Amino acid sequence: MNSVDQPITGLAARLGEALQAQGAQVTTAESCTGGGIAEAITRIAGSSAWFEAGFVTYSNAQKTRQLDVPEALFASVGAVSREVVEAMVRGAQAQSGACYATAVSGVAGPGGGSAEKPVGTVWIAWGDGSRLFSRRFQFPGDRDAVRRQTVEAALQGLLRLLVEENPAAG
To answer: HSE (CB half, 13 Å, CA atoms) of 121?
Structure first.
């Protein structure tokens, strides 16, 4: 494991311990990370006890098809938005049966940004079945750096959610 992966692997291990202690499962719904959160989680031996499913829904059509994100949201607020990641969390929970979920959508770059949503703009949402939180991030760096920071923030937020803190506050 390289030094870049160590903090993420440590977060995933802590998440697994916390989920196992609660007897709970987690699911992920990912766009800009392309399955990176699920990959980090499944690096941990025994993750099948607490990782239910990962959805990689890169296109808007798949966000609608797999996660039931309303098509109208894409025209009204865009894929990189609070509304879409919150719908992705709810859809992933409904499809997987997992209590805990995180969802991400963003502009990892190097292209695709706009004045309103420049490269590095990422929305992350977290839910536990009754509570739903989301936050907009502006991550610096190249595509790999944006994706890595997104995975790390999603895992940190899940850990906060499990101890009943607001994951969007940190």
So the answer is: 16
pLDDT tens figures, 132-162: 999 999 999 999 999 999 999 999 999 999 9
- CA 10 to CA 44: how far, in whole Å? 9
Tokens 């805990």 sit on residue: 100
**d(C-alpha 42, C-alpha 146), whole Å:** 21
Of 127, 116, 166, 155, give the one whose Cα is nearest residue 36. Answer: 155
Q: What pLDDT band is residue 42 in, cutting at 50, 70 and 90?
A: very high
Between CA 67 and CA 74, with CA 68 as vertex, the angle to 5 degrees is 100
CA distance 55 to 45: 20
Main-chain phi, psi angles of 106, to 5 degrees: -165, 180
Count H helices and E strands in the chain, helices first. Answer: 6, 5
Three-point CA angle 19, 169, 26, nearest 5°: 20
Instruction: Note the pTM of the prediction, 2 decimals.
Output: 0.96
C-alpha to C-alpha distance for 136 and 122, rounded to whole angstroms? 6
Encoded amino acid at 37, one letter: I
DSSP one-letter code for 94: H
Domains of the chain: 5-163 (3.90.950.20)
